[in-house]
Fold:
Amino acid sequence: MNLVSLSEFEREAHKVLPKNALDYYKSGAGDEYSLRLNRTAFEKIRIRPRCLIDVSNRTSECEVFGVKYSAPIGISPTAMQKMAHPEGENAVAKAAKNQEIGYTLSTIATSSIEEVGQSAPDYSKWFQLYIYKDRGVTERLVRRAEENGFTAIVLTVDAPIFGLRRADLKNHFSLPPHLTMANFTGELATGVKGKGGSGINQYVASLFDASLNWQDVEWLLSFTKLPVLVKGILTKEDAELAVEAGVHGIIVSNHGARQIDSVPATVSCYISAIFYNVY
Amino acid sequence: MNLVSLSEFEREAHKVLPKNALDYYKSGAGDEYSLRLNRTAFEKIRIRPRCLIDVSNRTSECEVFGVKYSAPIGISPTAMQKMAHPEGENAVAKAAKNQEIGYTLSTIATSSIEEVGQSAPDYSKWFQLYIYKDRGVTERLVRRAEENGFTAIVLTVDAPIFGLRRADLKNHFSLPPHLTMANFTGELATGVKGKGGSGINQYVASLFDASLNWQDVEWLLSFTKLPVLVKGILTKEDAELAVEAGVHGIIVSNHGARQIDSVPATVSCYISAIFYNVY
Amino acid sequence: MNLVSLSEFEREAHKVLPKNALDYYKSGAGDEYSLRLNRTAFEKIRIRPRCLIDVSNRTSECEVFGVKYSAPIGISPTAMQKMAHPEGENAVAKAAKNQEIGYTLSTIATSSIEEVGQSAPDYSKWFQLYIYKDRGVTERLVRRAEENGFTAIVLTVDAPIFGLRRADLKNHFSLPPHLTMANFTGELATGVKGKGGSGINQYVASLFDASLNWQDVEWLLSFTKLPVLVKGILTKEDAELAVEAGVHGIIVSNHGARQIDSVPATVSCYISAIFYNVY
Amino acid sequence: MNLVSLSEFEREAHKVLPKNALDYYKSGAGDEYSLRLNRTAFEKIRIRPRCLIDVSNRTSECEVFGVKYSAPIGISPTAMQKMAHPEGENAVAKAAKNQEIGYTLSTIATSSIEEVGQSAPDYSKWFQLYIYKDRGVTERLVRRAEENGFTAIVLTVDAPIFGLRRADLKNHFSLPPHLTMANFTGELATGVKGKGGSGINQYVASLFDASLNWQDVEWLLSFTKLPVLVKGILTKEDAELAVEAGVHGIIVSNHGARQIDSVPATVSCYISAIFYNVY
Structure:
């Protein structure tokens, strides 16, 4: 196909994906203003190139938690990847391993922790955690990640409930019947059914713990030996609280602009006064 | 119809409303620059979300003048709603009651104070007041609002004359013959007839009092026991005068950008230097 | 035709004017960036309306050089108006008189000073002056303006040569053969012929005095008893020199963005730092 | 054809050039954001015209290294011009001579130093230099420039490797078979062949010296008697290093936005804080 840029891959995806899945993957919250901002914000950033520096030896390698990567790039956790391709999360994990870049598996994946562990063995994968109301279920997820070669826990902290994505509301988004939330059994595995609205929103509202707070972070830190990162921080205030709580890393993210519209672009938070609340 | 956003409702309205009515409802003054600004100004506002705060118990409830609402949202007074639907203001008042949100009836409604009072009884409705040259007519409106269960008077202060809305000028806007200004009798009820221009502009120019000033606010406060809010304030200077005059509330508004083009967006006045004249 | 805004009149003009004339009237210099800016610059200006001020008596009247106008609005001098309509400058002067607004006749009009003087008698008209290399010709223009009821001289100071307007270059712009520069005889009257380029540019380059400077302003002030305004000032520095030279008025203008592209919008010069060179 | 602006010439070129060549000439790096910025940045620049200054004698002449030019404008070195026309660099050099403006021949031209020297004799032409890994090859280029009437060396300092231009990647850009890099023989002359990607990128990566640094500038200054300019400076820091290195001139340039996307527009670097790193 001779694709040479991300936008060309995206255009191809629009051709082959079923509407239900495509809409789920590509939607942002509300009017999708922040979704657009996530792209246009890059236009405010200027690279100031220096010249006449010997670049015959150059590398984009970096190291995180003692692991070397070929570039400071990783694949963020995204849910239900088998809607796009039968190999789903397994194929993505293998690709990440081949390219030596970061990979994080979503809690609400359509491939299980064990399956992905075997698809990309001997490779440092991270596991993204949603905290279910049922803390036993939650702890078991962490244990399984530890047992299957995952090397860090990425705790999502910006999704006590899910954002309103209008396409999912209109589509009454459901997980296709041949797929399940592969890390679970029973209702937790099959419960994404759009009954007059977005099935994923209803699933999250009934099963995720909306009371999530910093004490839950302490609880998580208390029983896992893996490093814990909190994902979804957008303000300096929360970054400071994260440091105080003793987490091992922060992932600045607006969740692909899928949770709240009018939030700043993720990339802007790294460089702008919005993060520091000094404007 | 499965409509999930305001813009989808708006799109549907464009399909079903007669041109004369649609143009009246959707037009802004002049080039409609401020009309567009009323929407685009939201793009300048950023939400800075905090995370890991227990949100299992959450509410958007608020209280105004001792009355509880389900959300800090209300329906602004808009004129002549029966042009859109036979139930007009009555249906809107009922909907507001059902949703427990604010509702204000326009002076120039196509349903009378008494009718709307009975459509949504036992509910805290407000009444928007235009001051007619005939002060007896004006005082009688306030008395009828008091007698029919309305709990506040919203005095419009930004419309001594009406703005130039080009579509109304071109359409020679008239109230459809089967409708009247239901709060009045005679010429005051049937006088919106476009004779070579906008009928509503001619009605307002001949009947509204263009000499309106802060002494009229004092006059209103002197004879009604209801709280009085002034609607249409856009500057800090006028907000301070309103406080001095003893009103019970201020509604910052640019009148849907229907009065003067090039005014700031309503939402910007809450947060910007334009309001404070310090730029 | 029921036209209710300037843009609608403009749209009609596009339908009826010959291309040669339309292009001449509507073009700006170069890429026409400043031409667009002349409109969009208004979007940066905010009106801050005050309310509850008695506006039952209101007027837009103003007075300039002892003459009353119905509004602070006037018709700028524009060249060769008979290309648009057989009555040309005469019709426009009559309309200005009827509306009691300002009017300035161009030196390079297709109606003569005498003709326009008679078309709108007993009315305060101004005369716009280009200084020809032949000072005798120039002085005679001023004398004729004085003798025909014109009450001020508007000296254009931003056109020692004319700007490059691409449509005129492509059209090889010529004055239509049935028209002349009506204030002149011979070559000065008929010399706008596009010989492989813009005829008006060639006319100006051969006949206008590109050495124009402040001493010429003094010369003009020395022999006319009419007030003299300089038109085309865009900077504080030149405004100050104009005051020192003793002129009676300044017209801030970028010449409809027809002279130099990338100049600021005229309206911006009244309110922005560009004029004051302090940015 | 009656073309009166650069954009019209560009439009014509789009009609006549083969896709492979057109894409090569018009592409910028990455998303081409800086390519667009190279044009739109001019919209931020305002000309503040002064008036009433005698401009009857005016000139755009300027002098560089003791040579007079008709205007402070020159033709930047661009590669492989025979893809556009059989006369290629020779025609462009002749045109520059005729117009008395600057001209710089590219190292990777499709016409040789000797050919262009004879096409535009007795005229001050500059030679743009890429430093090949083979320093003997590089020095010989400089000697040939000296011997063929070139009067300055323009050392490109922003291209140790070439930027990713997506159209070239998709086209597998190759130099058309009837053309060669005319300043070279063997593989250096014919090596631009797109084997599964951009041929020019592969050529540059294999032959240009990516270790280029300020010591190479000193090396160049040590053996040529011609003035040396460094082309591709975008920061104040590098400009200062260039002065310290003793070069005779600096050409501020972002290489037509062909090397790195998100760099500032060239024109902005002359006037903005980006250059000075003070924002």
